[in-house]
From TrEMBL:
Pathway: Cofactor biosynthesis; coenzyme A biosynthesis; CoA from (R)-pantothenate: step 1/5. It comes from Neolewinella aurantiaca. K(+) binds at D136. GO terms for cellular component: cytoplasm. Belongs to the type III pantothenate kinase family. The keyword Cytoplasm applies. This is Type III pantothenate kinase.
Length: 264
């Protein structure tokens, strides 16, 4: 499998409100993903110590791990790597501004390389992967394209579901603020339902539209969903899709393994 090592590795995804961490061995999560706050880094230290972690990678949109723990891990002989634009990646990128490419997008694209195809056993990714459209549905929705030869073409960024609903309220005088919810029918029969249909189905139609256009060039294209609103959008899509909740952590592990292999 691409991007694996025989050592326990810790992948850490530092967000604005919480931190997610998972321990990997041979490319697979060894247990459930752990969540903690920026004030609870002793949780990560227990994972490192109790599970015999040798290599650590983190990506961040906020703060970095406290120096206290970084120093402890380094002094104990652990290898720690920060995800940065200049790191070697397990794919070829055609992105023209790599310095501004979001770490979560880099990791999600890398994570897609470890996934099985829709026709391959889950335990054994295929030798040649199909092209993938990777949709990370969070505050913003990112849609990124990688082909079967591990060439990353770039992608799109657009407002997430809640941002769409919030903007319609904030930038008008009378439209109410509505929360994502269940839908029925193709159109809304009240103002609140119309907002929900526009915000939620609008995001789904955007994903479908890009997927169908790209499939003209990449006939084997698969749709991969991740992020907090992945399940919400998956239920609205009329095209086959697969949800991978921890794709960013898998991608961080891929990048770490690729780096370790090529530095040895």
């Amino acid at each position: 499998m691409m991007g694996t090592t025989s050592d326990h590795q810790l992948a850490i995804d530092i967000g604005n409100t919480s931190v997610k961490a998972g321990v990997f061995l041979d490319g697979f999560l060894t247990g459930p993903v752990t969540r903690f706050t920026d004030q609870e880094w002793e949780v990560a230290d227990r994972m490192v110590t109790n599970l015999g972690v040798k290599n650590i990678i983190y990506s961040t949109v906020a703060n970095v791990p406290p120096a206290k723990w970084m120093d402890k891990w380094n002094q104990a002989g652990r290898f720690t790597l920060a995800l940065k634009p200049e790191l070697p990646l397990p794919f070829t990128s055609l992105y023209e501004t790599p310095a501004t490419l979001g770490q979560d997008r880099i990791a999600a694209v890398a994570g897609s390389l470890s996934l099985p195809t829709s026709s391959a056993p889950a335990a054994a990714p295929a030798e040649h992967l199909p092209a993938r459209l990777i949709v990370d549905a969070g505050t913003c929705i990112t849609l990124d394209l990688i082909d079967g030869d591990a060439v990353y073409y770039g992608g799109n960024i657009s407002p997430g579901v809640r941002m769409r609903l919030r903007s319609m309220h904030d930038f008008t005088a009378r439209l109410p603020l509505v929360e994502p919810g269940s839908l029925s029918g193709e159109v809304g029969r009240s103002t609140e339902k119309a907002l929900l249909h526009g915000g939620q189905f609008g995001a789904a139609y955007e994903i479908e539209g890009l997927f169908l256009r790209l499939r003209e060039t990449f006939p084997d294209l698969e749709l991969i969903l991740t992020g907090g609103d992945a399940a919400l959008l998956a239920g609205l899509l009329s095209i086959p899709n697969v949800i991978y909740p921890n794709l960013v952590l898998h991608g961080l592990n891929q990048i770490l393994s690729y780096y370790v292999q090529h530095q040895s």
